[in-house]
Structure to design on (512 residues):
């Protein structure tokens, strides 16, 4: 092997080791910087008043969920058929009266538990893709093996604090039973917090029941151990699957992420202010519902809004308008006093190319700067969410590592001021050999693992690999090195036996 290549390999190994140990073992991030605010009191109050007007005059449609209608009506809402209209301020008052500003989601490994709410930030992988992609096999439908792979990669990624939820759809399993295997995979292959099923209230209950086996029923009654993501059917409607699942989680004291999913121009008006107004109205109704079910149940105020191509109708990412929505929604969540979820590394690109990189950066950086508390879709998102990419997962997770340094702000400690170095190093002298530099060089700057900053000759000597190729090698090596976290054998046995009995109690539906 050429000498230059041997030297380059050693440098790469040292660079990777430094990056892996650079403050990446925290269970969650703590923000010391102030979030960006783009609207003042007048603008935010106007948005809130407009949302109240929509809730009062237009209302929310409740689809195929009579129980939800009864709950709203008993609380004082005006129910006309399946339409619910809310007296001015009703939803806001319900939320501010009882919803917690911050809560702990407990992991089965207590060292992995996360704090959700200001000033904390939690990163979770992408969610919900039916397809997966990698450099060798290309784009294909996801399987339970792919799901397990991403659970393992999430466990192995110190930049990700949370196991996430539907890492991909395992279409090789029956639709009505795959949630058992997905939840079990989170528990078996990872010891970080996780999300549960929301495709039907019954499946949400299955998730809670599995969590009780792992944590104990009494513990689950008093503590949050699982999150459920419930999306409004924009515009201005909630259905049984989402609101019914929200009810199950709330009545069991588990957290619901209430998230309107809006494609502006199709599911909301095209303007930022109108999209924000509709998002707020839909979210207020969903969050208020959880507090009616169980006052004090933890919630996360979610927002997912994208623009669209007015020529093709396809969703677009990395554009400025959704960034403005994100900043305003984060401010509105702070005014409500509840945690906020949004953002991620989003792209419409089909592969891990330059488009994927700049669109992802254009959504992830505002996510961090807005002060988002729970970041879904941090790693893996491709093709507008249709595909979970192996290489994209690695690249995104790597770049997410820089957020720790960013949200930590400016170090004004004695070491951060470095006055001794400034006062003893004269004009024209370099700092490479100073005591301060030698004491800090390994951790002074965030160092990405998958980027290559070497010279052309070094890069060429190491194989002229592009970022996707380096990421491909990395995820394969991570899976090769993976060792499952410890899981109590009795708990594992009880889980598998309970799943077997539940699966046997009803027939399979179609696979796909």
């Amino acid at each position: 092997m050429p000498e230059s290549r041997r030297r380059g390999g050693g440098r790469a190994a040292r660079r990777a080791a430094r990056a892996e140990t650079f403050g990446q073992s925290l269970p969650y991030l703590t923000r010391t910087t102030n979030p960006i605010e783009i609207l003042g009191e007048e603008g935010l109050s106007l948005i809130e008043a407009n949302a109240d007007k929509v809730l009062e005059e237009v209302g929310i449609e409740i689809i195929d969920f009579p129980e939800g209608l009864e709950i709203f009506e008993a609380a004082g809402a005006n129910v006309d058929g399946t339409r619910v209209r809310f007296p001015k301020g009703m939803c806001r008052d319900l939320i501010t009266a009882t919803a917690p500003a911050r809560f702990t989601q407990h992991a089965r490994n207590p060292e992995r538990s996360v704090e959700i709410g200001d000033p904390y930030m939690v990163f979770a992988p992408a969610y919900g893709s039916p397809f997966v992609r990698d450099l060798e096999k290309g784009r294909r439908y996801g399987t339970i093996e792919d799901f397990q792979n991403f659970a393992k990669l999430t466990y192995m990624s110190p930049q990700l604090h949370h196991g996430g939820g539907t890492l991909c759809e395992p279409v090789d399993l029956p639709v009505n039973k795959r949630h058992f295997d997905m939840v079990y995979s989170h528990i078996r292959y990872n010891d970080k917090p996780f999300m549960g099923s929301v495709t039907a209230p019954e499946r949400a209950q299955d998730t809670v029941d599995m969590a009780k086996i792992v944590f104990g029923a009494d513990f689950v009654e008093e503590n949050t151990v699982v999150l459920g993501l419930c999306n409004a059917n924009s515009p201005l409607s909630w259905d049984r699957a989402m609101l019914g699942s929200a009810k199950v989680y709330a009545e069991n004291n588990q957290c619901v992420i209430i998230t309107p999913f809006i494609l502006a121009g199709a599911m909301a008006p095209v303007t930022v202010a109108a999209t924000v107004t509709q998002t707020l109205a839909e979210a207020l109704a969903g969050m208020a519902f959880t507090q009616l079910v169980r006052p004090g149940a933890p919630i996360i105020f979610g927002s997912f809004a994208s623009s669209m191509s007015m020529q093709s109708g396809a969703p677009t990412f990395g554009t400025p308008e959704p960034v403005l929505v994100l900043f305003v929604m984060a401010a509105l969540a702070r005014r409500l006093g509840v945690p906020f979820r949004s953002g991620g590394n989003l792209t419409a690109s089909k592969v891990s190319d330059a488009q994927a990189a700049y669109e992802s950066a254009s959504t992830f950086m505002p996510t961090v700067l807005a002060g988002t508390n729970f970041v879904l879709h941090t790693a893996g998102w491709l093709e507008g969410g249709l595909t979970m990419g192996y290489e994209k997962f690695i690249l995104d997770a790597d770049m997410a590592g820089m957020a720790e340094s960013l949200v930590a702000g400016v170090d004004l400690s004695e070491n951060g001021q470095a006055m001794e170095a400034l006062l003893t190093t004269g004009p024209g002298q370099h700092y490479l050999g100073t005591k301060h530099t030698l004491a800090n060089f390994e951790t002074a700057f965030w160092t990405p693992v998958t980027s290559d900053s070497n010279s052309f000759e070094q890069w060429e000597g190491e194989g002229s690999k592009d970022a996707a190729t380096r990421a491909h090698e990395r995820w394969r090596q991570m899976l090769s090195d993976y060792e499952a976290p410890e899981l109590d054998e009795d708990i594992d046995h009880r889980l598998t036996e309970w799943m077997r009995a539940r699966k046997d109690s009803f027939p399979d539906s179609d696979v796909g």
About this structure: DSSP finds 20 helices and 20 strands in the chain. The first strand starts at residue 29 and ends at 30.
